[in-house]
Amino acid sequence: MYEGKTNPMDLLNLNKNLTMLQGYSGEVMCKAFLATLKGPTRSWFRKFSLITIDSFGNPSRLFVANFIGCRVRKKNASHLFTVHQKDGESLKDYVRHFNQAILEVEDPSDKVVVMTMMEDLRPGPLIPFPKVSLKPCQHSKARLTSTLQ
Q1: Share of the chain above pLDDT 70, in %
Q2: Which of 46, 56, 128, 145 shows its CA 20 to 30 Å from the CA of 116?
Q3: Residue ranges of E strands in 5-135
Q4: Does residue 145 share a domain with residue 96?
Q5: How much is the pTM?
Q6: Quick one: three-class SS letters along 75-91?
Q7: Where are the alpha helices (DSSP H) in 23-90?
Q8: Residues 119 and 88 in one domain
Q9: Within this chain, do residues 42 and 103 fall inside the same structural domain, yes or no?
């Protein structure tokens, strides 16, 4: 259900694709579209629907023009430079956080993504290795002793 808080184009495209796939007329498309609206968007569209509708084109253009300000604008690639790996944050958590930030950016290039990710990593090993104390086995120790003598 659309309440006027997101990008109206997403709803419009979904509705058009589903109804056109079924071969519905403009009037049926408008009625189906009305069923996806809620609150102020539904009230707005109902007032508009009182006018005779012979196609879905005009109402859909007016809908987008009226609610286009509600869409969330994507950020530019420089936003990725603000995403840093925090102290104590695992590489896995950082990658998850960074990938979420990529989704907020409009058309990021692979080069920019790699460059910003490398820039924002904390220095240190990528994977923490467990501390293991290695003791030489007796056979190696005996061979080393005999070689040295």
Answers
A1: 70
A2: 128
A3: none
A4: yes
A5: 0.46
A6: ECHHHHHHCCCCCCCCH
A7: 26-34, 40-49, 57-67
A8: yes
A9: no
Give dist(CA 117, CA 100) in Å, integer.
Answer: 12
Domain-ending residue, one of 43, 70, 97: 70
Is 3 domain-assigned? no
pLDDT, position 4: 64
First to last CA, the chain: 85
Amino acid at 15: N
Domain count of the fold of the chain = 2
Do residue 47 and residue 91 come from a single domain?
no
pLDDT-derived band at 99 (thresholds 50, 70, 90) equals very high
Scanning the structure block, which residue is given the tokens 């005779």?
52
How many Cβ atoms sit within 10 Å of the Cβ of residue 13?
12
Tell me how far apart the alpha carbons of residues 75 and 143 are, in angstroms, rounded to a whole number.
64
Which residue reads 């253009």 in tokens?
Answer: 61
